[in-house]
Amino acid sequence: MIAGGGLGGLALAQGLQRAGISVAVHEKDPGPDFRNQGYRIRIDPDGITALKALLTPQAFEVFAATAGTPGARMDSFDHRLCLLHAQELPVVEDLPGGGNLAANRRTLRQILLAGLEKSVHYGSALTRYETDQSGTVTAHFADGTSATGDVLIGADGVNSATRRQRLPEAQVVDAGLRLLYGKVPLVGDAAQELPSDLSGLWTTVIGPQRRFLGLAPVQYREPQHEVTARLAPGIELSDDSDYLACVFGMRRKQLTCSDEKLFAMSGAELRAMTLSLMEGWHPGPAEIVSRQDPASIFPISVRTSVPVTAWETNAVTLLGDAIHVMSPAIGVGANTALRDARVLTARLVEAAAGRPLTDALRAYEDEMRDYGFDAVRESAERGHRLVGQDRLPAPQLPPTGNAHPQH
């Protein structure tokens, strides 16, 4: 059983289903398009490798064909567009896009849902679980239903109900940043007028008081319906047009309004506030922000996990943001969740072949803690250095007796 139908949970379900392991995904939203879950997402070599291992070959081809290939350049400028730092990520020759792809989150989610129609249960929010003496897990949901399985994976995001019960000592804290996500349609003249030095894989413009603007294009090589007709007629994708993902961020302390007011603002109000906070910047970035579609703009609070030490393994484990949510400072949150899905699938396949289940889950958790919390720490450090993200609190120790012995 997987609690949560985000990218990580669905990728895990794809991998398990391909391996012949029975899986059910319980998603709290009433449907796949219930809420906006973001726009452009960078898929790095870890994410691409995971998707190649978990998806069917046809579905992976669709993913690669619908992702943009903006290259490997990640430059930083000051607010007058003077170059601060030029970075070129390593190219991995045997991966699509050299290992750096720009995917549309909704498109990727639709690909991950394909073939899981009978396995995903919507309106099914986990509230609690219980284990019996045989080791099986019964999950209880807000609608009064329940389900029983051999393993429960909490992939239910930053507000994970699974984590609250499984690891109450695992903290998630406010990182002290607020982001405003939006998109600029790249149609007609807008596509031609985008400066080439602002159209890399990810571009950061850092202004006074560490306010910042992140820019990343999503440019399709062919319409989605043509991709699926050519490669996988059974996969249905919503068509989309080229756009520039646009993320403005600031420290929470710089806002003159409460979070309650911020989250109640309209897109037009959020855009106007962003432009007011960019006074004195080079006119280029301000012009880009002024072209955002107001209906596309929404705010988020950046939160981060506090790394925890080892815990005693049982038949309930965690994946993605449910255990290692991180700031977007190094752009690997979703990729780390996809890596979790690949590693956990491999360990559960071993368990299905006879490896003791607890040993298999412990091997996953040991590996996941290392790379997952390394990414949390690196994201927090870079976010602090560049844009003033709060430093991570000290790691939390589990209650006595909750950690498994070193082995």
Write structural notes for this entry:
The chain contains 13 helices and 17 strands. The protein is of the alpha/beta class and 407 residues long. The protein has one domain (2-387): FAD/NAD(P)-binding domain (3-Layer(bba) Sandwich), CATH 3.50.50.60. A hairpin with a 5-residue loop joins strand 13 (202-206) and strand 14. Helix 3 packs antiparallel against helix 4 and helix 3 (57-66) packs antiparallel against helix 7. The longest helix is centred in the last third of the chain and has 31 residues, at 357-387. Mean pLDDT is 93; it is low at 400-407.
What is the structure about, briefly put?
Pfam families: FAD_binding_3. The protein is of the alpha/beta class and 407 residues long.
Q: What's the N-to-C terminus distance?
A: 28 Å
What's the tally of helices?
Answer: 13
Kindly estimate the percentage of residues that lie in beta strands according to DSSP.
Answer: 15-25%
Structural class of the secondary structure composition?
A: alpha/beta
What assembly state would you assign to the polypeptide chains in this entry? single chain
* CATH H level, superfamily name: FAD/NAD(P)-binding domain
CATH topology: FAD/NAD(P)-binding domain
